[in-house]
Structures are given as C-alpha cells and as structure tokens.
Amino acid sequence: MKTKLTPQRLLRKSLLSAALLGAAFAPAMYAAAPLESGALADQAAAGIEEQAAGSLRTVSCSSVSCLQNALKNALPGDRILLAPGTYKGTFSSAVNGTKANPITIESRDPANQALLSGTSAGGGYCLKITGDNWVIKNLKFTNAQKGIILDNSNDTLISGVEVYGIGYEGVHFRDGSSRGILENSYIHDTGTVNKGFGEGVYVGSAEGASYNQTVNDTIIRGVRIGPNVTAEHIDIKERTSGTLVENCIFNGTGISGENYADSFIDVKGNNAVIRNNTGWRNGNTVITDAFQLHQIVAGWGVNNDFSGNTVNLDQSSAYVINASQGTEAKAHDNVRNPAGNMYKGNVTTY
C-alpha cells in the first residue's frame, strides 16, 4: 500500500535529497584552490587582467615589484600601464613581442607620466630592452648612467618620452639593434657625470667595443634635444647604416667640447639622411660646426645626405657641414643664419 505523501512529507523528502546530493558533490565544488606558484604567482603580483583565451592582456602597475614582474613575465601583445608616480630601480626585459603584437609599456595617464628613476647617475640604467618589437611611450627617465638602452632589440618604438638627469647618454641603440624608432620626445641634461660621453642619442658602438656594431635603419624624428646635452646631440657611429634624422630641434646650450663634442650631429656611418632639422648655437663658442663627418674605419663615413636643415650659428665661422678626410656627403637646400661658411671637405651640392 502506497503511503500518501502529504505536503509536509514532500518537503522533508526534498530536503533529504538535497542534503544527500550536497554531500556527494561537496568535495568537487568546495575543495581548496591550489596556491599559485611560479609564473602564475608572478602574474598575480603584476596585476595582470586575464582575458578570454587568445586575447591580449593589460597589466596595471603602481609599484616597483609589479613592474619588475610585468617585464619579466611579459607576453606578446601585453600592455603594461604605469600609474602616476616614481618607480625607482633598474628595469629590463628580454622578452620578444611580435610585429602584430608588440609589448607596450606606457603611462596610464599621458598627462601625468610615470617616472622611471635609476639609483644613481653614476651607474646602471633606467630601462634596458633586449627583446624585439617593443613600444615604450609616454614615460620619463632620470637618475641613471644611461637612460634607455636597446641591446639586440629590433623593431622597437620609443615615443613621447622625456630623458634627463642622466650621467652619460640619454638613449642608446646598441648591439645589433636595427629598425628602431625614437620619436616626439625630449632629451636634456645628459652627461651630468661625464660630459664627453653625454650624447643625447647614441647609434651603434665605437670601434673596439664588444658589442655588435651593425645597427641599421634607425629613425630619430621629432625629437627636441638640449639644453645641457654635453656631448653631440646625436652620434652616429661607424659600421651603422641608414640612420634617418628628421624634424628635430637642437639647442646647443651646454655642449661641452669635451672628447671632441663640438657639433649637433657627428656622422661616422654610411647612408645617413639628415633632413629638415633646426639647430641653435645660442652663443656656445665650443660649437665649431653644425654637422660633422669623421672616418674611423676605412669605407665608412660616406654617402650621407643633408637637406632642408636650418642652423642658427650666430656670427661664428662654423660650417654647416664639415666633412673630414675620407668622408663624403651630399647637400641640398640647407640654410645658415646668418650667412657664412657652408661646406668644408668632400661635400657635393645638388
């Protein structure tokens, strides 16, 4: 005989079934999550926002440890956003981005840029990248021997940065780094420790250095350099090729004359194009020429082109282009204010 199920019995049966089911499934549903370790822990510390599989990641940082972890564990397409503030230390990454998905490090608020500060203008660097396909933008760099170094870093873009208070050179394209771009930036007050090595931008390496000197197709455009850049504003070294410098402004106040630093640009490589730039001597008597060419290695310092540049050289006898022995250049539509010496050495006008 079937027992009649009253509403009260139905309720008790439902509660009992639920309790039995809960007991059966409790281990799977409520087991303690394993502690994160290794890369997962680093990602958590870096504040990485995981998105759907295959999509790009945003990493938001407001601390030094977060930034260090984000650089260490970067993936192609990562966007590292720095909150306003000062990040003191030495920062680097060896991770590669890709052409389609570069790795980006930038300020969260371009109007209130984050500052990467080294520990001393006498040593170290602010940021060194040894991977390919990076974007470094809207950041400030100070208080290190070198500001930004690219070592064997190809196809990297530096944009909208300010570099200052640096012991040696501001930005260095080095050790086989090719197709790098520096644009729309401001470099000043470099060489605070060693004036003869205080270049604003350094392309390549000097002969005899242990680095790969083949640094090709570098682009420097729309950059303000000076005041108080104590060596050349741009030094283009031997065994480099295809450097383009355009639409830059050079403020010669502070060029020191030390270690032969007496011009805005010194070209020792081949196939450089220097065009549509403006230079101001500002009464600095150590500036003997606007642009110089030197041959350090036979066969280098040739086939360089200067066009559309305007240089304000006061009443000095400085030349617009001084091509020393063994070098050669072409020149077109350059303007000297006031009128005076234009070209010296093997310079062909067209």
Automatic annotation (TrEMBL):
Residues 1-31 form the signal peptide. Residues 129-310 form the Right handed beta helix domain. The keyword Signal applies. Keywords: Signal. The keyword Hydrolase does not apply. InterPro entries: Beta_helix, PbH1, Pectin_lyas_fold, Pectin_lyase_fold/virulence, TAT_signal. This is Right-handed parallel beta-helix repeat-containing protein. It comes from Paenibacillus chitinolyticus.
